[in-house]
Amino acid sequence: MTIRQKLLSCLGLFAVITLLLVGAFWTSASTSRTALHTVLHDRVVPLRDLKLVADNYAVRIVDAAQKAESGSISIAQAASDIREGQGNIDAAWQRYRATRIEGREQQLALEAQARMQNADAAVKRLQAIMATGDRAAFDRFVANDLYTAIDPVSDALAKLVDLQIEIASEHTTEAESNAALALTVMAILAAIAAAILAFSYFTITRRVIDPIKALATLIRERAQASGEQHLPDLDRKDEIGDISRSVDAFLAAAVEKERRNAAVAAKEQATVVDALDTSLAAMQAGDLTATITVDFPPAYAKLKTNFNATLTALRDLIGSVVTGAAALRSGTSEIAQAAEDLARRTESNAASLEETSAAIAQMEERLRTTAGAATTTLTRADGAISTVSDGRKVADEAVQAMARVAEGARGIDDVIEGLDKVAFQTRVLAMNAAVEAGRAGEAGRGFAVVADLVSALAMRAEAEAARAREQLTTTQADISSAVAMVERVDGALSNISGDVGEVHGLLGQIATDNQAQSSAITEISSAVSAMDQSTQQNAAMVEQTSAAARNLAAEVEMLSANASTFHVGDGSTPRAPKPSRSAPMPAAQPTLATSFRPQQSAAANNAHPAAKVIHDAAKRGSAGSNDWTEF
């Protein structure tokens, strides 16, 4: 089968099972819709109409007649309610009869209709009696005939209602069974659809996608390597087989062409490698004049040009290095001598800064001691202020206590005055008692003696009250004097507190000034210490510079010796001049930063980038005192 047939088969199976699922769902939905319509319109709505018929018989007719019998409403109003009830009954019964009625329901409906006719006949007789206005006949008919005529209608309607509920339950059970069957069918179809989907995925993956991936992988591997590997699926009869056979033929031709090109390239590379090997061997022996003279293939012509240009630049560079090394030896000697002189002067400055730092440290310590004393005095002043404040609080409390005592004395004065009044009244009563005893004669003689004694006691109480008032007055005067003295003490404490506050402010200012001076001296000391440390570091750096200059001189000697091993042309090797340590540095002598720069020609500066790379490597080697024998 071709890929097209496989894909169409999978899609066809999936489409068939999808249509079956849709059909099962549509059938289930249609069945449920029909069942719901039947239950609603043929069972639920008729229940409402039957209830209306029963309610109108019971309420509009029987209840209205009984209310008229009891006198709750008039006969005319009852007749109006009965007519309205008959209209409602006829309308509801006609709506019920318009629904689908068959079988046992038809029989019950005919039975109910027959009983309703008997009830309607009784209602008409009732209406006729009500029209005549015969109250006695109306009461007899309501009490004896009306209920017996209408009650059978309620029984028939109840049977119809029960039948409606029973039939609705049957329809509901049938709809539930149909829904369960539809769900089962749809579950089976869904399982079949899942199986078809898995089969389609397996078929497409194993028979289409995997062969294409394997073919793509092998093509990529064949593009990276030229082996004799054959593609898979060459014997397949579908589109994968056609692709495999076409790609296999294409790769075979490509591999053959690659082999021919590789043979030509190998021959050219052998020529280039031999020439480079000869020149590099000469360079390793120190001969910088061994340029390449063999003709290279066009693809390697640029390599020959760059190699020869690089060799020329390197030859010029070595000559410049020898010349620069001679000048560098003299400069390094002068730098070492100057660095040693600078180190001695720096050590002297460091000693002076150390003495200055020690003196400033002593000043800082004295200022800190003064600041500590000022702080202690300030603390004592705070304690004095707190003590004075506590004394003023105690004085205020004493004044308040004396005020409370004075208030209590005034209360005692009022009590004494009350006792004085009681004693006076007691004396008056004793006098009255004595008068009454005199009137009584012999019978009141003993009572007169008691009255005299009570009068004497009253007079004694008045005298004692007068003495207590005098002592209380004296006490109040003493309390007033004590309050005045305490107030004078409080004023003195207030003045002391003000003076101590001024002293506290002055001490605070002194402490602040001492702290500011101490901070300034600390900063000066820190600055001097930093200068001392910097000077010591400078001295160490100068010593390191002097040592580095001496090492640099040794490296320059080694550089000159290494450079003399190279052959740069004219059958001779460059020779470095002898160093002259005592000769002064000429005015045109290059500086330390520029003395490492070789004086190369304009042709070397404009050489190929490969020559510039070697030139930069030579500069880095000179600056780092590396060994040039690696060339």
Quick tags:
631 residues, mainly alpha, Four Helix Bundle (Hemerythrin (Met), subunit A), Helix Hairpins, 9 helices, 0% strand, disordered C terminus
Task: Describe it.
One of its GO terms (biological process) is chemotaxis. The protein has 631 residues and is mainly α. It is built from 9 helices and no strands. α2 runs antiparallel to α3. Among the domains are: 3-212, Four Helix Bundle (Hemerythrin (Met), subunit A); 340-563, Orthogonal Bundle (Helix Hairpins), CATH 1.10.287. The model is unreliable at 571-631 (pLDDT under 50). 85% of the residues lie in helices and 0% in strands.
CATH architectural grouping of the domain at 340-563: Orthogonal Bundle
The level of helicity is over 70%
Number of helices: 9
Overall pLDDT confidence: 72
Task: List how many beta strands DSSP finds.
Answer: 0
SSE order in H/E notation?
A: HHHHHHHHH
Biased composition (Low complexity): 602-611
Keywords: Cell membrane, Chemotaxis, Membrane, Methylation, Transducer, Transmembrane, Transmembrane helix
Organism: Stakelama pacifica
Membrane topology: Multi-pass membrane protein
